[in-house]
What does this fold into?
Amino acid sequence: MNKQVYLITLLIFTFGCKHDTSKTLKEDYIWNSKKVTATAYNSVKSQTSGNPNITAFGDTLKPGMKCIAVSRDLLKLGLKHNTPVEIDGLEGVYWVKDKMHSRWKNRIDIYMGLNIKAAKEWGRRPVRISYGLAKY
It folds into this structure.
């Protein structure tokens, strides 16, 4: 009986409590926009140095995560680790979890898990991003 009560309680909290993160993000951040070049990458050895699941910031990537890597010049604009980013044409909020080699400028790299075909189909294209800078 106790296991059933625990399971039901867990399900209620997991699926019953919807939190509108978009409203919180809009209120807690000052939003800027910028046009950048967007490419895509995967967590496979041929595209990375070292462990393909560990980012330059030390985060662990898992397929399905909405993450991006940013060129190092964008770090200076405030697109630092864990900055929320909205990408025109894509659903949801992406998070800065990785940084790119210093040779790239004004560029983001969208994480596409293990789906190499999707990354190749994305290719390289100009996009407008909106990024949140914490108000405090």
Notes: The beta strands are 29-41, 67-70, 84-87, 93-99, 107-111, 125-134. The longest strand covers residues 29-41. Confidence is low (pLDDT under 50) at residues 5-20. The chain has one domain: 19-134.
